[in-house]
Amino acid sequence: MSESFWDACFDRPLPTREGRNLRTLRDAYEFIRERCAYPGHPLAAATLGALRLAAQSGGSPDAKRAQERAARLMRINRWGRN
Q1: Could you tell me the superkingdom of the organism this chain comes from (predicted)?
Q2: Which structural domain range is residue 37 located in?
């Protein structure tokens, strides 16, 4: 993860069931990589790809899209509190 925007903050932190708040692209990427039993699954791969793209581009629309994908994956897998 050498891209320079990994520490970009989300608009709103993503809360986990354990009480942790994922605040940055790096937090979400590492959380999903650790939790996902099969990172090659299309939804997981798309989410990780969106997070990488946001870290590379540094653009707000990319970060927003990555945050939405991460929140969706967390909701589907019941990793989040929402």
Answers
A1: Bacteria
A2: 9-13+21-76
Domains of the chain: total:
1
Query: What pTM does this model have?
Result: 0.90
Can you say whether residue 9 is alpha, beta or left, with left for phi > 0 and alpha for psi between -120 and 50 degrees? Answer: beta
Question: pLDDT by residue (tens digit) across 16-70?
Answer: 999 999 999 999 999 999 999 887 899 999 999 999 999 999 888 999 999 999 9
Backbone φ and ψ for 50, nearest 5 degrees, come out as -65, -40
Pick from 48, 54, 43: which is nearest to 76 by CA? Answer: 43
How many beta carbons lie within 10 A of that of residue 63, not counting itself?
23
